[in-house]
Amino acid sequence: MSIRPALSPLTIVYLGLILWRDFFYRIDVFPKRKLSCVVISIGNISSGGTGKTPMVISLAKSFKKAGKSVAVLSRGYGRKSSGSLLVTDGYSKPPDWRLCGDEPALMAMALKGVPIIVDKNRFRGGSFLIKHFNPDIILLDDGFQHFSISRNIDIVLINSGDFQHDHRLLPLGRLREPWSCARRADLIFLTKTNLKKPSDYITRKIKQLNVPFFSSTISAISVLSSINEETRSIKNLSGRRVLALSAIGDPGGFHSLIKKTGATIIESLIYQDHHTYTKNDWKIIKETKEGVDADLILTTEKDLLKLEAFSGDVPIHAIRISLNIEDQGFQTIRSFIDKIEIIN
Predict the structure, then answer these.
(1) Do residues 209 and 188 make contact, with C-beta atoms less than 8 angstroms apart?
(2) C-alpha dist (Å) from residue 141 to 57, 77, 120, 157, 265
(3) Do 337 and 270 fall within a single domain?
(4) Percentage of the chain with pLDDT > 90?
(5) pTM, whole model, 2 decimals?
């Protein structure tokens, strides 16, 4: 029996809240505050799985290579702390991921020389970064729906593997707000285009937005057995029979990436995004591996970070990924920044 009709009233209420909030920001009932540096928001209009964290990491590295100082401002979804928390000054070891959130902890391990703070009050967190680090650019992680802080560039990510039925408002689909709201974006990136060719539906819908759009790809670059150990060549996965384990927004994309390495998925375990693993979960994972006689457990970097406490008796391996932006896309972002600096 379908539950969609029963959920329809929830969708109507959700839509109403979104539209009223947008209206109050447009007429300045809810104020927007501005930080004294370039702010680039990386977000989406869906409920996850577009690759925001890899995009933040990729842009931060690209800007640093171009001679810009960069900092990252995140809410720290699901963290067990409150207020402002400096995840790293760019060189210090991040705290336990439970305190700062799994994605900020992962970004801190991937980025050197990039301060990262988590704060639900984005303006307070951004002001701290400016006072203590004075960055040229602040990357606002998952900021597209966070209107209270002004941004110079709004980047929206759309998963190339999205289906038409995904593009309905929560809770019926995966959209956080109506598709037309993507017109607020300055740039759109269609992500993971090497894992799944965008459907005609997605391509047509993006073109109708009349917003410049570019593509990006996800590559598997190495295999690691723990976050802090040496990595191994991705070629080591070829021919291996793996148990695919993930708690991310796009498990299907992860499975496609595994297959591109030459490994065979003989079983998969999928948990909800940001899931905190328990001892019972670990028991099920081990039993599943033994039951299907998998060569190894293969997971994501984000999941490995949360599984290290359990993995002493059975090794876990993770794929380290890299998000690659087409040159024209990054050059377009740079041209936006150059114009901002001229105006200022």
Answers:
(1) yes
(2) 10, 10, 11, 12, 32
(3) no
(4) 75
(5) 0.91
180 in the same domain as 314:
no
Question: Does any domain span residue 64?
Answer: yes
Residues 281, 264 share a domain: yes
Q: Are 334 and 311 part of one and the same domain?
A: no
Provide the 8-state DSSP code for 166.
G
Q: Are 183 and 158 in contact (CB under 8 A)?
A: no
Angle at 327 between CA 232 and CA 59, to 5 degrees: 60
> So what's the pLDDT on residue 314?
87
Helix orientation angle between 327-343 and 52-65, rounded to the nearest 10 degrees: 60
Q: Are residues 99 and 121 in the same domain?
A: yes
* Residue 258, domain extent: 219-322
d(CA 139, CA 38): 9
* pLDDT confidence bin for 27, thresholds 50/70/90: confident
Predicted confidence (pLDDT) at residue 226 exceeds the cutoff of 80: no
Measure the CA–CA gap between 326 and 214, rounded to whole angstroms.
Answer: 7
